[in-house]
Design a protein that fits this description.
By secondary structure, the chain is an alpha+beta fold. It has a single domain, classed as endopeptidase domain like (from Nostoc punctiforme) (endopeptidase fold (from Nostoc punctiforme), Alpha-Beta Complex). The strands form two sheets. The protein has a six-stranded antiparallel β-sheet with strand order 3-8-4-5-6-7. It has a two-stranded antiparallel sheet with strand order 1-2. The longest helix has 18 residues. The radius of gyration is 19 Å and the shape is globular.
Length: 160
């Protein structure tokens, strides 16, 4: 009986170890598009298709989405898988200075009163970004120099 239990434990341990791989956590979908083929303005056009869509916590479609869900939905259209939360998205891609922002870059904010990233938008150019606002409960444009967002701006990342 001891041998059977021991064998079962070893088999279970091997199964767990076999499921751990070094494969990347986020992968592009099967769409044959390379990030270098995508222009940031294309990303902004795709994001603007969601303007007016309702805010829904955890949502990732035009029926309703949250800030990070908007980013996921937009970049997914181009075959690029993005982490699901704004906190994780802020670690993805390449860091960009605020002065070097280009359309399609992700802009991050600390809106929850802590040091943790809690909000994200897609920079559209000319000091504006598109985001799913939980204040107005819809996807809209806002300005980075808006008093609220200027005070809470944290960082930016380039995906393309």
């Amino acid at each position: 009986m001891k041998f059977v239990v021991k064998s079962a434990l070893i088999a279970a341990a091997l199964a767990v170890l076999a499921s751990c791989t070094s494969a990347p956590r986020y992968r592009s979908s099967t769409v044959d598009v390379h990030p270098s083929d995508i222009d940031g303005r294309q990303v902004v056009r795709e994001a603007s298709r969601f303007l007016g869509a309702p805010y829904r916590n955890g949502g990732t479609s035009a029926k309703g989405l949250d800030c990070s869900g908007l980013v996921v939905a937009v970049y997914q259209k181009f075959g690029i898988a993005i982490p699901r939360t704004s906190h994780e998205q802020a670690k993805f891609g390449v860091k960009v200075d605020r002065s070097g922002l280009e359309p399609g870059d992700l802009v991050f904010f600390r809106t929850s009163g802590t040091t943790k990233i809690s909000h994200v938008g897609i920079y559209s150019g000319d000091g504006e970004f598109i985001h799913a606002s939980n204040r107005t409960r819809r996807v809209q444009y806002d300005r980075l120099d808006n008093r609220y967002f200027k005070k809470r701006y944290a960082t930016a990342r380039r995906i393309l």
